[in-house]
Amino acid sequence: MSDFQQISYEVEDRIATLTLNRPDKLNAFTSRMVHEVCGAFDLADADDDVRAVIVTGAGRAFCAGADMSEGGATFQKTSGADIDPDSEQSSLKGRDGGGIVSLRIFNSLKPVIAAVNGPAVGVGSTMLLPMDIRLASNTARFGFVFTQRGIVPEAASSWFLPRVVGISQALEWSFLGDVFEADEALSGGLVRSLHEPDDLMPAARAIATRLAEKTSSVSVAMARQQLWRMLGASHPMEAHRVESKAVPQLGAAADAIEGVTSFLEKRPAEFTLGPANDMPEVYPWFDEPGFVEE
């Protein structure tokens, strides 16, 4: 899907930038945006030239939350509901649109960097949670406002938020439903750093560039999946089983050989493998029934 209307997607210097692009509506979230964001992540995963994805917003907002142009009926259906029942996406019908986006980001093979350029409220905040590194403008504002709208946390945020910021902070923000300033997001662990507006995207691109220039994209993809998915593991043995298979499988591959050789030769590594085609045999271990009990 590349005929995007409500987002933009561009790749430069091995960095994909996904921009929520309804600036006149403060990038308010719609059903179409659900499917366009997912489509952009599909493009990024399939393109081994993409080493990292930056997500930001056009204009003065990141995302002001759900498009509430339907007034009181806004939340009477999910934003995943507007699907042609005969389309290949019909299985998404009736599902929360924010959750569809969050789970797609969760499954990304590429590291995801949020550059929060302005207000990020409701789904604008919850869609940030499965992103890996979150930077914000010092003019950004955040809010998990669901109790003040009479609904519940969405976008799988009841799973993600406590894992990102801890249960006490997650409960406080979710109970109160207040919009809060960027410095509170920083002190609460929602974002890793604050920047002047003009410095935000350069800071995000600097991190993405370090990933592109210094790391094996297959190693990064595996590390991303290991760390996120092990948050739900019941015992460290689950991690040990995956690692015991992944280390020798990747260890015999070209990137590991290059990584060791370049270190010994004291030169920059030139990694060649890509996650679209070169993930180790153990991946995706989480789709194998009974893997932990093997």
Describe the structure in brief.
With 294 residues, the protein is an alpha/beta fold. It contains 10 helices and 9 strands. The chain has 2 domains: 7-211, 2-enoyl-CoA Hydratase, Chain A, domain 1 (Alpha-Beta Complex), CATH 3.90.226; 215-293, no CATH class.
Which H/E pattern describes the elements? EEHEHEEHEEHHEHEHHHH
According to CATH, the homologous superfamily of the largest domain is 2-enoyl-CoA Hydratase, Chain A, domain 1
Number of helices: 10
Q: Give, in spatial order, the strands making up the sheet with the most strands.
A: 1-2-3-4-6-9
What fraction of residues sit in β-strands?
5-15%
CATH topology of the largest domain: 2-enoyl-CoA Hydratase, Chain A, domain 1
Level-1 CATH class name of the largest domain: Alpha Beta
Total number of distinct structural domains: 2
Q: Mean pLDDT, nearest integer? A: 91
Structural class: alpha/beta
Q: What is the end-to-end distance?
A: 39 Å
Largest sheet: 6 strands, mixed
Molecular structure report:
The protein is of the alpha/beta class. The chain folds into 2 domains: 7-211, 2-enoyl-CoA Hydratase, Chain A, domain 1 (Alpha-Beta Complex); 215-293, no CATH class. The protein has 10 helices and 9 strands. A hairpin with a 2-residue loop joins strand 1 and strand 2. The model is unreliable at 71-76 and 83-87 (pLDDT under 50).
